[in-house]
Amino acid sequence: MRNVLACLVAVVVVLASVSPASAAEGAGHAAAIGMGLSVLGIGLGLGLIGYAALSGIARQPEQAGAIQGAMFIIAGLVEGAGIISLVLCLVTIFV
Fold this sequence. Notes:
mainly alpha, 0% strand, single chain, F1FO ATP Synthase
């Protein structure tokens, strides 16, 4: 838990260090940081979904089909939100 908090504090410090005066020059850097955070969030979300699904199937093997169906729907929603985030970061870089 301490490592997660330390990582979050480091991310906040890096994001807060971007000065508004260099917003025009630093927009690409901020978008790159946003893309990295998006990828981290997608990976964490999919990992947690997979872990929960495997735990549920291990507890109730007869419900494997229902659990897998729900897992794929939720994973698709997480992927969709992540792809939208990445596209918005790319639009920020190139516009």
